[in-house]
Amino acid sequence: DKSQNWILIVTAQTPTNIAVIKYWGKRDETLILPVNDSISVTLDPNHLCTTTTVAVSPSFEKDRMWLNGKEISLSGDRFQSCLREIRSRASDVEDEEKGICIRKQDWDKFHVHIASYNNFPTAAGLASSAAGLACLVFALAKLMNVKEDLGQLSAIARQGSGSACRSLYGGFVKWVMGNDASGSDSIAVQLANETHWDDLVIIIAVVSSRQKETSSTTGMRESVETSPLLHHRAKEVVPKRILQMQEAIQNRDFPSFARLTCTDSNQFHAVCLDTRPPIFYMNDTSHRQVLIINCIEKWNRSEGTPQVAYTFDAGPNAVLIARNRNVATLLLQRLLFYFPPHPDTELNSYVIGDKSI
Ligand code: 2P0
User: For the Mvd1 C-terminal domain, which residue ranges apply (predicted)?
Assistant: First the structure.
């Protein structure tokens, strides 16, 4: 049957992002609405990113997805929410040459195939849902000719994974928590684009490639339920910090940026420790993390002004942000001194933002 014989394909690429003011805790688990605003920096797309190809064809019998070449289930609520939200906003798609015409109301009758690849080793413990879900939503939106702007798409990506909403923009991005119960105002906004502060060099030190023991979703649920510090943080601390961070980014004020980034990472881990039972994201390799934190704290004090910021997510890997290329070179030298290359060592460095270092 000739009318079955076409396929429409879209490919998109999305980098991951690193929070400098952390998201930790939801007020609505289904819609993924956070208890506080967060701010992140989106990495250079040449480094840690996801590439996703989505296709539609009348010959596809069901929705299917492959991750790094292996088929995975699409039955989860979060995937289904994203697919449903995108489908409901689809527009007409016509391609006269190929004889393709899909009417807006007919998108429900078509199935999609999705193939997603991460360009970084999944085993390195850096696999992040952020890039993946953002890329999926963006590629599907293009395929189905969704007219919504990036902010509205970010509200859909958010329902796939909270931090994913921030990966739709480059540069510095704020995820506004919003007030509305529907989540329509819980969206990402770009604070500054990728050229605004391009002196910064981000180095990710892979301290351990082990999978984390507590998933972020479970961890933050337990923190919301049991940590008094989380509620104090969300209400009293983060709102002020968000304003200060926005100002630091606007003014490219590295000392303030570094102080806020390090303090917020430490408070996020303090919330984890304040959770019952406590969550130790820095536990299994804590001596290395303490070494890295001490090394940077000492260095920053000895220079009289911060040179490097550190931040740790829900895993042991260190994300280090150097104020410029020269500092990044010195930082790599110091990292290599403390963690000399050895077949047994797990420390590798990914240099983001400047391939030549
Ligand atoms: C962040 N993290 O702001 C924080 C800092 C980890 C520590 O966002 O349940 O994978 O899918 O919304 O987005 C990790 O949480 O959790 C995260 P869900 P997500 O980057």
Answer: 202-357
